[in-house]
């Protein structure tokens, strides 16, 4: 199984990774729409390969409080995946799912709302991984989601510590999705091992 050097990735390989990001985010948005029984529109995602130290700036800075939902990837792909959003985005999605109208500035979540947030993350990540599995024809499973509400720098330190020793880059898929009332940003961060990046590209003929 081939390894890949993320610092020397060519345009065709990056285009494939970008397309994986687009399709995965699209599937996740569809699943979210079905879950909350409301039409959700999504802008074309921005996809980039970034160093871990750059990720927190994208989500508002290292001290910005965010909701992070982390999964460990297993099967034929090893690594981690994270879905992140800021608190106002999380509040809006919880309101949509639960039919509530809590002010978006309210940062405290009840146990039931936290459970709903966890389920949203589960559905989104499941749809994303399902599309990745279908595209590559590879078996990919994920762990039970681990959710944390903390500063983005603290949340991102978990995969950075885990995978910093084998590579310093992650695939960031930044997408804006929303309903008629509000558009929110969500961030998918896909962190396969270098061997798994090679396996993904190999499965697609690259």
Automatic annotation (TrEMBL):
Keyword line: Chemotaxis, Hydrolase
Example of a GO biological process term: chemotaxis
Residue ranges of every copy of the Chemotaxis phosphatase CheX-like domain listed in the record: 70-150
Keyword Hydrolase recorded: yes
Stretches assigned to the CheC-like protein domain: 12-47
Pfam family for this entry, one: CheX
MF (Gene Ontology): hydrolase activity
Domain of life: Bacteria
Family annotation (CDD domains): CheC_ClassI
InterPro entries: CheC (IPR007597), CheC-like_sf (IPR028976), CheX-like_dom (IPR028051), CheZ_family_phosphatases (IPR050992)
Name by which UniProt lists this protein: Chemotaxis protein CheC
């Amino acid at each position: 199984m081939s390894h890949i050097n993320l610092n020397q990735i060519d345009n065709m390989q990056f285009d494939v990774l970008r397309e994986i990001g687009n399709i995965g985010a699209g599937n996740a948005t569809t699943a979210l729409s079905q879950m909350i029984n409301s039409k959700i529109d999504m802008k074309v995602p921005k996809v980039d390969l970034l160093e871990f130290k750059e990720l927190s700036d994208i989500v508002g800075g290292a001290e910005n409080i965010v909701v992070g939902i982390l999964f460990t990837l297993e099967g034929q792909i090893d690594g981690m995946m994270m879905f992140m959003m800021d608190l106002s985005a999380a509040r809006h999605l919880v309101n949509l799912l639960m039919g509530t109208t809590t002010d978006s500035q309210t940062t405290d979540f009840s146990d039931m709302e936290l459970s709903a947030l966890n389920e949203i993350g589960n559905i989104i990540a499941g749809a994303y991984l399902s599309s990745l599995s279908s595209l590559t024809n590879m078996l990919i499973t994920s762990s039970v989601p681990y959710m944390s509400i903390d500063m983005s720098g603290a949340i991102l330190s978990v995969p950075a510590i885990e995978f910093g020793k084998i590579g310093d880059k992650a695939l960031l898929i930044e997408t804006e999705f929303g309903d008629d009332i509000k558009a929110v940003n969500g961030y998918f961060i896909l962190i396969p091992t270098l061997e798994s990046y090679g396996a993904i590209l190999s499965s697609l003929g690259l």
